[in-house]
Write a structure and sequence with these properties.
18 helices; 7% strand; binds acetyl coenzyme *A; 427 residues; three-stranded antiparallel sheet; mainly alpha; 6 strands
Amino acid sequence: MVKFAKLSYDGKSVEFPLVEGTEDELAIDIKSLRAATNLITLDPGFKNTGSCQSAITFLDGEKGVLRYRGYDIEDLAKNADFLEVAFLLIFGELPTSEQLDKFLVDIKEESYIDEDLKKILESFPSAAHPMGVLSSLTSALTAFNPKTFDVESEDEMYRAIVRIMGKLPVLVAWVFRKKSGLPLKYGDYALGYVENIARMMFRKPNKEYVANPIIDQALNKLLILHAEHEQNCSTSTVRIVGSSHAGLFASVAAGISALWGPLHGGANQAVVEMLEDIRKDGGDIDKYMIKAKDKSDPFRLMGFGHRVYKNFDPRARIIKKAANEVLENLGIVDPVLEIAKKLEQAALNDPYFADRKLYPNVDFYSGIIYRAMGISTETFTVMFALGRLPGWIAQWREMRLNKEPIGRPRQIYVGQNQRPFVPLNKR
Ligand code: ACO
């Protein structure tokens, strides 16, 4: 097999080695490109650019395959516990029961927040978006935990990891509770990681909390499905912020901001808002299909399309099934689920969507489950962030252990050529 790619430019021919992944993926290693040719590559949106070699997630968008550390997402979503998946992603192997117990105990040790952070939370206006609040509070954790750590030390890395795994669920629960007008409380650390998150979020001040296994299981599944997705927008953000040797809290806070946008994690909120708008508008699917296809209309079918999946998103299939089951088990009839199914069917049968290989993504049905659990629409993306945390940590850790250089793309300058300064009175 040819092991290099040849580039001819300006009468010269330069060869670049090919890099092969464990699933036979090929890339041209252009590290020497600029030195050899004085050229750079231009790839807005990084549609053809690999930023790293990673051993965490394998994704084949053409075949609809997603694996965490070699394990199929279907297998993990069906059989695993979120904390096991977090351990797998971060450390590379499924934990033994001793390793899992220790991980949970170490996380519990860190599952508290400086009381002064409550003052920051309370100072946000009640209309503040939960993602902005979560990102700010995660960043603020740096101020309350200022000690920098040595990334050469596995032990110090581990301490940073259990610290954020312990503290982020408390912040998420508090952001949700503040938005819902509920008192800020801690959980019950005798419970498992996910069960404790459910308790911290849903416990009411006026009655004994009784765990609902349907909610716990649905939450576990959603967190696993959102846990990792290789070099997406928020993960690339975490890696690039971390590449400047900023700490883990700061890197994750940046990831939360990147996740917020409606083209990324914010799509789960945008989908349910879109479905509600369609419902209020009489449920006319055809009208919204026409809008989605009209290039002069900014409307897009939220929860449809993906940069990488060009066949189907395996997470969407699992979530659709889970949405049906959870709503049925909770005895909830949500009219937007029916609208979602009709919209999906209409889009799948429409040449515009078929030609562009646009399929439902992970967020098309996830908001419907969150809503059935009693989570407000604006808080959906906060739940996504909680699920994505192990993925961000795993990628950040891998980047630091591999001693990757600071992320710093180049550009092609298309602005003004050099010109003299014009004083104010001459302009
Ligand atoms: N509705 C209507 N048309 C769409 C949609 C959509 N949801 N998505 C893509 N298209 C069209 C584009 O207009 C474009 O058409 P053209 O070739 O005629 O110009 C074509 O499909 C390709 O779309 P791009 O925007 O170039 O694809 P890209 O890979 O850059 O974007 C993205 C992917 C951002 C996910 C896009 O499909 C989208 O905006 N989807 C809706 C938002 C969404 O659901 N985001 C969540 C993604 S999953 C996640 O991040 C967790």
